[in-house]
Amino acid sequence: MADSKYSMEDIVSLCKRRGFVYPGSEIYGGEAGLYDFGPYGVELLNNIKKAWWKANVQLKPNYVGLDSAMFKNPKVWDASGHTSGFSDPLAECKNCNARIRVDKELEKVGVTADEKMSEDELNKLFDENRDKIKCPNCGKKDFSNVKAFNLLVKSNLGDFTDTGERPVYLPGEACQGIYLNFKNITDTTRMQVPFGVAQIGKAFRNEISPRNFLFRTRELEQMDTQLFIRPNENKENYEKAKEDRWKWYLSLGVKEENLRWKQHENLVFYCKEAWDIEYNFPTWGFDEIEGIHDRTDYDLSQHQKFSGTDLTYTDPRVGDKYIPWVVETSAGTGRVFLAVLSDAYVEEEVNGEKRTVLKFKEELAPIKAVVSPLLRNKPELVEKAKEVFEKLSQDKMCEYDDNGNIGKRYRRADEIGVPKCITVDFQTLEDGTVTVRDRDTMEQVRVKIEEL
Ligand code: GAP
């Protein structure tokens, strides 16, 4: 586990206590698989997305960004294979009506269900192992037959029929908008194959059993890149994408010993090869945070077939025509958020007291500095501290805090991972210096206000 001293419960509790993540619709008793990011959570999430965008768009000359509409013509999901093939095997407990994900329950008893299995094949495999599988809710072993449960979430946008004849879907994966705009991008920009398109977008999945906090949710967000390449140039581009994505996690400060690769034996319908980057989560251990997929020409060929639009590309350098192949990287923002938080979480003892610290890299810290007057009842210190706060917050997310004593302010700042605490005291009024306390070493130095 990330650091076996801490559990996911410690992380969940800190997230709630300090305004990182709240259970969705909490005042109504909640709603499974949904969470809201609070004031510090949204800052951390935005910083992760900014770091990703910088690495994948700003620093890569052959990549461009996109923000496509979530709703799409429903035929898109027929072409992509989601209306027919995007399902999880579900069975219901006849005693308590709990729904189980059959592949996950089989996995627990050492049996692998291939993603491509038909409903009949799944039922056969389930029947062979029924005696080993207990309902996680009531412990009984009496289940219904297995049904392939489609994960797409339906809506009625633009459907005025009352009977739901033309369902439209919320995106099952964010990346489809990139394929739909492949032609637009090559027609309107100077991008030539090989080039990549990056997008951060929401996806929705009717997960049978949302679980593990932000890990498996029904509403999620994905940071995707799709690299369009010449046919058969996938091997080298795939290896490069893997290397590149691994390094990105290290650049965020995630400890390398908490990361590992896992190759997919059971491939989803669009994939020729798939590797996951896994993070060693507290409590349940290594699990997927990002997938790198060799999608070949599957997506563009399907969209060409279903839309009737010619998506062949004429290579201006070689002069030949082809449907480009795709190498995809896809990371869930919620999972990356949880990995970054788990990796930064530390409990220490300082002078006999427990201190909880989030040791984020400064780039990711939700708040970069807290500015305080030494005493809140001295107007001259308060005025000066507010002046310093105003100056610093022009460039960075800072907070002004004059609640409680200075020790309490430090503890509060540590718990949300603030790298520097700046205190204005009487000496400030004389020589224009303030104390700057470092989150990790807890050392304090005097710095001139102009040099902050
Ligand atoms: N376009 C490719 C795709 O959607 P995926 O492996 O299904 O591939 C990519 O998803 C990433 O999205 C995963 O590695 C994970 O980080 C995130 N993800 C998928 N399902 C999720 C869920 N139910 N809750 C949270 N994150 C999820």
Q: Please, could you describe this protein's structure?
A:
- The protein is α+β, with helices and mostly antiparallel strands.
- The protein is built from 14 helices and 23 strands.
- The protein has helices spanning 8-17, 39-58, 75-80, 82-85, 102-108, 119-129, 176-180, 182-188, 234-251, 298-307, 333-344, 379-392, 406-415, 426-431, and strands spanning 21-23, 35-37, 63-65, 87-92, 99-101, 147-150, 154-155, 168-169, 195-204, 219-229, 259-263, 273-281, 285-296, 313-314, 321-322, 325-332, 345-350, 353-358, 369-373, 398-400, 420-424, 433-438, 444-448.
- A seven-stranded mixed β-sheet has the order 3-9-10-16-13-12-11. A five-stranded mixed β-sheet has the order 20-19-21-22-23, sandwiched between helices.
- Strand 12 (273-281) and strand 13 form a beta hairpin.
- The site of glycyl-adenosine-5'-phosphate has 19 residues, from strand 10, strand 13, strand 16 and helix 11.
- How much of the sequence lies in strands comes to 25-35%
Tally of separate domains: 3
Bound molecules: glycyl-adenosine-5'-phosphate
Helical element count?
14
Q: Quick one: biggest sheet? A: 7 strands, mixed
Query: Mean pLDDT across all residues, rounded?
Result: 95
Helix content: 25-40%
| Radius of gyration over C-alpha positions, nearest whole angstrom | 26 Å
Q: How many β-strands, per DSSP?
A: 23
CATH superfamily of the largest domain: Bira Bifunctional Protein, Domain 2
